[in-house]
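User: Hey, my collaborator sent me this sequence without any context and asked if I could get a structure. I don't really work with proteins. Can you help?
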Amino acid sequence: MIREITSKEDYLKAKEFSKSDLVFILKHSITCPVSARAYSVFENFSKKQSDSGAHFFLVKIQLHRDVSNYIEVDTEIIHESPQVIVLKNEEVVWQDSHYMITEKALDDVFSGKFAKS
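Assistant: No problem. I've predicted the 3D structure and written it out in structure-token form, which is a compact way to encode the shape of the chain:
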């Protein structure tokens, strides 16, 4: 299940989950076809991992620009869209954007076969 982040408080709650589990956040443009493709990949991956304990979140950047900006400042990751940011222990362990958001990349992050970017 993908939960939507609509406020700073929602983001901080999501970040809290990362103390024990992986947290995947998709920053999604609701008007961009590349972002629509990334959303489809993210959604399929989240369904595949539904029993894994990982948490999946979505920020619709046009509707919640303030939250997107807050995440950028908090994580020190320059905003892109689409963009996936993965947190563990309240730290960014992986992030990528655009066509680099693939099911294989997300699988690699989930299984620990990735380099911190």
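In plain terms: The two ends are 26 Å apart (CA to CA). You can pass these tokens on to your collaborator as they are.
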